[in-house]
Amino acid sequence: MTDLRDKAFATRAVHAGERAPRPDYTPVATPIHPTVGYLYDSIDDLDAIFATTREGYVYPRYGSPTVAAFESALAELEGGEAAHAFASGMGAILAALLAAGVRAGTTVVAAPDLYGATYTLLNRLFTELGATVRFVDVTDLSAVEGALAETRPAALVAETISNPLLKVADLPTLADLAHRHGAQLLVDNTFASPYLCNPLVHGADFVIHSATKFIGGHGDVMAGVVVTSAENRRGLYELNKLVGGVLGPFEAWLALRGLKTLPLRVRQQCANATRIAKWLAEHPKIAGVNYPGLPTHPQHKLARRLFGGQGFGGVLSFEIAGADRATVFRFMEALELCLPATTLGDIYTLVLHPATSSHRSLSAEERARVGIGEGLVRLSAGVEDAADLIADLEQALASAS
Questions:
Q1: Which among 38, 45, 59, 61 is annotated as catalytic?
Q2: Looking at 213, 233, 265, 367, which residue is catalytic?
Q3: How many domains are there within the chain?
Q4: Any catalytic annotation for residue 61?
Q5: CA-CA distances (angstroms) from residue 96 to 99, 136, 205?
Q6: What CATH number does the domain containing 185 carry?
Q7: What is the Cα–Cα distance from 138 to 171, expressed in whole angstroms?
Q8: Is 301 a catalytic residue?
Q9: How many C-beta neighbours within 10 Å does residue 79 have?
Q10: Predicted confidence (pLDDT) per residue in 276-288, tens digit
Q11: pTM for the complete prediction?
């Protein structure tokens, strides 16, 4: 650093304390790098980084150290070659679809019971841009194969555990079918998290997370990430340089910090969700429960095989018998410990009404076709004591009726 003692006060105020000599220590926790610019001794180095012939950082839209640390951690946990982080889960889904070659004149085959915003992204935005979308129940493998053979799509899109009906996708078979017909398999793994399932191991080409959910885990950060091959990651990188849906360093640091306790949290959330689902399944005011951990669930055996016996996820949904929208609202307002918030995967137990929140963008007819009724409630189990949560649900059901 240049000696500042002979410089004016304004100059010293700007430059003092900056660009200290390189340290001879390594911090235990990953540092936050909020800078938007980087200096090199040689401008040739800067040029090489722009040309991607050497690693380094020049501008946050091209990457930053804290974000890179988060990406490296996710790639490691998902068993992928590389990852690219985004400012939100929807940003990650959009980028993955584009990187998979979805364009005007191409076709996408997708599950109809995807997260509402993903469904709308495909059914409206990509359709308006000239792509064709074919919705097929991905648990009906013969129907999937038929759609793939007929349309030869660029991509097949599914969720490991669907939102909010908790269907489980047969990922190995879907990957085989997709590749047989020239499609890439994109899997939203948000509900399962890397702790329960690694879709890349089962043949997926892109794995997508809303890191806002289980990965961040504390309701204080919004982020998305795509884990894929090194080659596909290069495509995502070039896309995001133009689109600019970058994750900030503070958000990356929070998501990385949350990731450290992912196995601890998800184990407890799975245990709580299982106990709550079993209790709800026997409750006289509940018409039905959707949870892969119940032996009555259509994909229970598949879930046990895919998730290796580590659990069945922290999210479930249930239908309040005979409930209309007003009844569900009264139920949610009566809750004291369970929080009516439009997210999931937190340390808190959260409930929402899919028809008016996560799937609000669907028409009533579209929701009816998928199976999302007015009495459906989605619950994301937190890490509280399960007995307290059950007592809260009991009093709220009594209050609503």
A1: 61
A2: 213
A3: 2
A4: yes
A5: 5, 20, 10
A6: 3.40.640.10
A7: 10
A8: no
A9: 13
A10: 999 999 999 999 9
A11: 0.95
